Amino acid sequence: MKPRPNPPLFLPILIRADILREARTLDIPTGFAISISESVASVVESYLKNHPVVTELDIKSLIISELEKYHTDLAYIYRNRDTII
Amino acid sequence: MYWASLIPEENFLLFYNLIFLSVVFLASLIVASLQLDLGGLLLLYHGSRGHHSRGKTRSLASSYICGSMVMQFLILGSCAVVYQLIYSVISFFHPVLSLSDEFFSASAGLLISLALVSWLFYYRSARSTELWLPSSVSNFLRRKFSEVSTRIEAFSLGLLTVFFELPFIFVPAFLAYNSLLSLPSNIIIFGVTLYLLMSILPLLICRLYLKKGANIANVQRWREKNHRFFRILTGIFYFILAIFIIVFIIMGELV
Questions:
Q1: What is the band of B97 on the pLDDT scale with cuts at 50, 70, 90?
Q2: Phi, psi of B131 (to 5 degrees)
Q3: So what's the pLDDT on residue B2?
Q4: Is the pLDDT reported for residue A4 higher than 70?
């Protein structure tokens, strides 16, 4: 039987780096992008503390809903980056 | 029906050349309306702007567009090989002077099928711009676009994205080739240039728009908002070309 792959790690630092990279594609100023990424990462961290079992989709939805508050283009690209082609 | 006999003799050559140039133009419109290369350009910007400077992103985009154009030219050239191969095989069993009539008739039928296929299957979902490609291929392309760092890689990705659209591009390209064969040699170069420029025109417009300061979110929103329109438009272009060929070339007995 094939061994189940390890679930991906959701470290705040990885989420921050991901959001910063997406923000850079949209030419968002660096300071603003850093503050957005830190706010979103802290919200995801507190969500994970209160919910022991989560799916990748839950985390993605949470990140998108938080990004919507700060920058709609960033949230849009984060949501649709896998459906461009 | 031979309506071409209604045209005055002095204008017949002009009309004849215009008909075949129109086929080339319509074929290039079909290729331009397809979305994979435009989506690839957006992915290139998305992947590159996160890692590289603006200047490097622009040079990668230029290399990608060059790759697309080169592949379109190679497909057009490969139609010559396919034509000769089929002609050789058929001539072996039954000598013929030319197969243009049969090729145009078969192509018209294929165009109508492609119109239906593009309406039904070109986009995966009614709500997004995800295309018909298998998920392994689209994941492969997404990964490659996110990792692109040199101009030669961007050029290769331009070649690859056009190659993956071959099922939808081959018949219009074959018709364009057949039509170019019927033109005088001094107009063939103009026809080839028209075909290549029209087929990469959406990429050039998108590149110019992004260079002026728009971001990829705006372009992607526009694509998502209008993707139903593009799906219908592509099908309509296929139909128009099929009807054009049937009426003007086959029924007009121009070949």
A1: low
A2: -95, 180
A3: 60
A4: no
Q: How is residue A19 written in tokens?
A: 């959001």
How close does chain B come to A18, measured CA to CA in Å? 10
| DSSP annotation of A82 | T
Instruction: Give the DSSP letter string of chain B.
Output: --GGGGS-HHHHHHHHHHHHHHHHHHHHHHHHH--HHHHHHHHHHHHHHTTS-HHHHHHHHHHHHHHHHHHHHHHHHHHHHHHHHHHHHHHHHS--S--HHHHHHHHHHHHHHHHHHHHHHSBS-SSS--BSS-HHHHHHHHHHHHH--SHHHHHHHHHHHHHHTHHHHHHHHHHHHHHHHTS-HHHHHHHHHHHHHHHHHHHHHHHHHHHTT--HHHHHHHHHHTHHHHHHHHHHHHHHHHHHIIIIIITTT--
pLDDT attached to residue A7: 61
pLDDT in tens, B182-235: 899 889 999 999 999 999 999 999 999 999 988 899 999 999 999 899 999 999
Contact B220 A76 (CB under 8 A): yes
- The answer to whether A78 and A19 have CB atoms below 8 angstroms apart is yes
Nearest-by-CA chain B residue for A75: B217
ipTM of predicted complex: 0.84
* pTM for this entry: 0.90
B128 touches chain A (CB under 8 A): yes
Q: Is A25's CB within 8 Å of B46's CB?
A: yes
Q: How many residues does the structure list for chain A?
A: 85
Residue B221 with chain A: CB contacts under 8 Å: 76
Count of A-B CB contacts under 8 Å: 56
Query: Among residues B250, B88, B94, which one has the least CA distance to residue B178?
Result: B250
Please report the pLDDT score of residue B1 as a whole number.
47
